[in-house]
Amino acid sequence: MQPRLNVLVAYPYMNPQVIESLRAVGPSLRFVLDSGAFTAWKAGKPIQLDDYCRFLEQLPIKPWRYFTLDVIGDPEGTQRNYETMLKRGFKPVPIFTRGEDLAALDEFYKTSDVVGIGGLVGTPGNRGFVKGIMRHVGDRMVHWLGFTDLDFIKVYRPFMCDSSTWESAARYGALKLYMGRGQFKGIKKAQFQQRPQQEVLDRIRQLGVDPYRLAKHDEWHGGPSTSRTLCARSGVALSVDVERQTGTKMFLALTTAQALGLLVQGFTDLYHRTKP
After folding, report:
1. I need a labelling partner for 102 at 20 to 30 A (CA). Which of 46, 191, 225, 260 fits?
2. Burial tier of 33 (Cβ tally within 10 Å: 0-12, 13-18, 19+)
């Protein structure tokens, strides 16, 4: 399998710099557009369907897939938006949210080959819900919104999923380093005041990062820090491995052109740079 850089960006973050950065990646990019309805709802600035459709029509880079504009807390409103987009000639991925009637899920499959499954992030019993919904879905294609539990991916092999947790070090001063073969090591800033385990040092070097830079406080915070660089490369390696081993396309969610730049550089260094 030829490695692809899988990224997901929400509509509210699609500024000119992000759009131009996406265009510059080339054929290695697999780009998914999310409507960003939840982000806009939290900000008190709901997205208008006409604006979203107009944006899709004018977007100079065509998404590999794009989601319908959902209405938070209003499944019927989400359904109306989806039907309106279909009538306008769009082919968005519909979203089925936890708590809806399963008949709505089956109805979505009449007009789309893949359906997004929402309501999975930070909700009690989400793993039990995934088990139940996947029994109903069977071999049909789904996208798990914000849910990337590897144990579940290995069993159910969803068509797509996405997560923003690859940026965790920039937020919390700690990260889950992908070691390969589905294994992780949790590392924290404090560990680098002394010598970490050799396998951790070796893995960081394999990802093209100097581990000793992480001993500096500033390299765990802000901008293109060493910790964010390492997180990006760890996330890219995980995404590529998951697709190779299970067929699931794991998308790395981002909000800025800077984050995209880190992912692109990591992907290029790990998979496209000519070896000496």
Report:
1. 46
2. buried
CA distance 125 to 147: 13
Give 274's pLDDT tier (boundaries 50, 70, 90).
very low
Can you read off the two tokens belonging to residue 20? Answer: 């131009």
> Using CA atoms, how far apart are residues 11 and 50, in angstroms rounded to an integer?
13
Tens digits of per-residue pLDDT, 33-64?
Answer: 999 988 888 888 889 999 999 999 999 999 99
pLDDT digits over 173-205, tens only?
A: 788 999 999 999 999 888 888 888 999 999 999
What pTM does this model have?
A: 0.94
Query: Distance (Å, rounded) from C-alpha 160 to C-alpha 145?
Result: 9
Residue 193, CA distances (Å) to 88, 178, 212, 221, 256 in order: 58, 21, 10, 16, 30
